[in-house]
Amino acid sequence: MRTPKILTTLKSYSWSLFTADLLAGLTVAMVALPLSLAIAIASGADPAKGLVTAIVGGLFISLLGGSRVQIGGPTGAFIVVVFGVIAQHGYDGLVLATFMAGIILLIAGYFRAGNLIAFVPEAVVNGFTIGIGIIIAASQLQDFFGLTVQNIPADFLEKIPALWEGRETLNLAALGIAALSLALIIVLRRIAPRFPGLLIAVGIGSAFVYFMNMPVDTIQSRFGDLPSQLPHPQWPDMSLSRMGDLLPSALIIAFLAGVESLLSAMVADKMIDGHHRPNAELSAQGVANIASSLFSGLPVTGAIARTATNVKAGGKTPVAGIIHAIIILLVMYFAAPLAGYLAMPALAALLVITAWNMTEPHKWRDYARGRKSDLFLLVLTLGLTVVVDLTVAIGVGVSVGLALRLSRRKSVESDWTPPDR
Fold it and tell me: Which compartments does it reside in (predicted)?
């Protein structure tokens, strides 16, 4: 069934539901705003691209998706792939790859491929997710410590020694702001989980930089002023040869968008005791990625953390996600200069805690106690993600995982346990 959930929920919509969705949408927007900026920067893109993605992609995922409470936007899972595509093919190459990924997801939704997630071993997803978390954390060390290092290598094994060599350029002011923001995020999450702790923490850290005139980079000082309106839509520059070059990247983007969105929808189902429509969700991801690419945005998918925030804030229907997108649009139009004051170390702290949550450390003991073949598969995928390439990691991980399943001569059934991240 590919009918969007919003068509079902609007049949019995009421003012009380709208009030709940309005408050939830506002809360999620305050969480999504700094995250979208930070993810764009970590991906090697202009920070404004993160806002565009949250607005356009988030709107279409809520309008067309198969979950009542799914929130879409740019996520940390894409950072590694997006950074690599931009480095190799330029930003216009990423736009085309995202457009192609959207087409692939539309085809997957049409052929009802949503249930195929059962064939992807959970250990593979856990492995590359932990690997991505490690890479994201490593990518933020320069801003977290305020290091001045030129031409940092993209390769993880070369990046760490290069950062260590630049340790004498440590900026204590930047480290202090990063540590303060990190501590505030952790404390606010525990004592006031319903508050937009991410925005409050980043805002307080950035306020210190501004009012105390600290020698710390901000979005505005590094990237210039943020735009106060959406860009005009335009078709990506397409040619057969370029599409052929970008097809592997498009397939990985489509795979990540599909898996992440369906995982997020599964988490939401558990929280609200509901049932999402996987094929409608895939189709919505396809339209959202096409739309995001037309506005020169980043790849988009269902965001687990923001979806969980939406549920905890009282979101009841897809209207909450639409409101979240509209609020970010209003911020872009009327408060873009304020976002430019956000401090880079504070955003680095936000991404470090995001990376930590992606690794789900509370599950490590269960991984170690589980089936040895699953642990091997997790470590294999993790190692390939960090040391080699995400494309290779997913290809090898899925192939080895399916081979291990077949060797056990059992029927292929889903072994998923919904993640908590």
Answer: Membrane
Q: What is the DSSP string of 96-153?
A: HHHHHHHHHHHHHHHTTGGGGGGGS-HHHHHHHHHHHHHHHHHHTHHHHHT---SS--
Is the residue at 187 inside a domain? yes
DSSP state of 72: E
Q: 16, 312 in Cβ contact below 8 A?
A: no
- The Cβ of residue 379 has, within 10 Å, a number of other Cβ atoms equal to 15
Sign of CA dihedral 203, 204, 205, 209: positive
In a domain, 103, yes or no: yes
What domain range includes position 150? 15-407
Q: pLDDT of 156-197, one tens digit each?
A: 888 899 999 989 999 999 999 999 999 999 999 888 887 778
Residue 298: closest CA among 10, 45, 63, 19? 45
- Residue 213, SS3 per DSSP: coil
Going by C-beta distance under 8 Å and a sequence separation of 6 or more, which residues neighbour residue 166? 142, 147, 148, 149
Q: Is residue 412 part of a domain?
A: no
Model pTM? 0.85
